[in-house]
Amino acid sequence: MKTTILFDLDGTLIDSTEAILESFQYAFDKQNFRFKGTSEDIKNEIGYPLDVMFHTLGVKKDMVWDFVDSYKEHYREISDQKTVLLPNATEAVELAHSFATLAVVTTKTSEYSRILLEKLGLMEYFEVLIGRQEVTHPKPHPEPIFKALEALKVEPSKDIYMIGDTKLDLIAANDAQINSIGVLCGYGTQEELVKYSSNIVADSLQAVKTIKKIKN
């Protein structure tokens, strides 16, 4: 049976921090909301759905979707100019593709995710992309992983791995009963990630090399 590797996106393969922070500020300004936090407060929430992020950052629950709409309005304009591949991301995906079936499991909107991956030259390596609108319950719920495996026609097994940079990725993998590898190139800290996985490495390339070593 061929290995299956699921990749998170933000903080795992790409860095869109500038676009995210700028789009949050745009939404706050457009909605006349005085945000009392810092950029670090926003970065600490990356990985959660936008509506959850806005609510956590102080927006009333019945208003979050107005903020999400404003965020997306700006993000779609700037995301491709202000998103870059993380170091070793291309090498990681190319190596993974040489021995595994690949999918992306992200909380980003799949439309934007696909556009970004196509622009960055990586979309061709992935057979499936599961984004926010494909699921009812995003990570840390295991539903996005189950959706990806269903689309790939793969049953959960010991030969499936989730690579991600936050506890949300690792919790989802644990609850889906698949393997997880945390990477330190994104938004999660080692102190936090080790609570949910025994495999913590520097970046996605080291994660893929770890999987290949396990296979061999």
Structural overview:
With 216 residues, the protein is α/β, with parallel strands linked by helices. It folds into two domains: 3-15 and 83-215, Rossmann fold, CATH 3.40.50.1000; 17-78, DNA polymerase, domain 1 (Orthogonal Bundle), CATH 1.10.150. Helix content is 44%, strand content 14%. It is built from ten helices and eight strands. The protein has helices at residues 17-30, 39-43, 50-56, 64-78, 89-97, 110-119, 143-152, 167-175, 190-193, 204-215, and strands at residues 3-7, 14-15, 84-85, 100-105, 128-130, 160-164, 179-183, 200-201. Strands 5-4-1-6-7-8 form a six-stranded parallel sheet, sandwiched between helices. A two-stranded antiparallel sheet has the order 2-3. α1 (17-30) crosses α4, α3 crosses α4 (64-78) and α5 runs parallel beside α10 (204-215). The protein is globular. The two termini are 14 Å apart. 46% of the residues are buried.
Q: Would you report the number of β strands?
A: 8
- Supply the CATH superfamily name of the largest domain: HAD superfamily/HAD-like
Extract low-pLDDT stretches: none
Strand order of the largest sheet: 5-4-1-6-7-8
**Strand percentage:** 5-15%
- Write down the oligomeric state: single chain
> How would you classify the helix and strand content by structural class?
alpha/beta
Helical percent range? 40-55%
| N-to-C series of helices and strands | EEHHHHEHEHEHEHEHEH
Radius of gyration: 17 Å
CATH C-level class of the largest domain is Alpha Beta
How is the CATH topology of the largest domain named? Rossmann fold
Look at the structure and give the mean pLDDT. Answer: 95
Question: What is the number of independent domains?
Answer: 2
Quickly count the helices: 10
Terminal residue distance: 14 Å
CATH architecture of the largest domain: 3-Layer(aba) Sandwich
- Shape, principal axes of CA atoms: globular
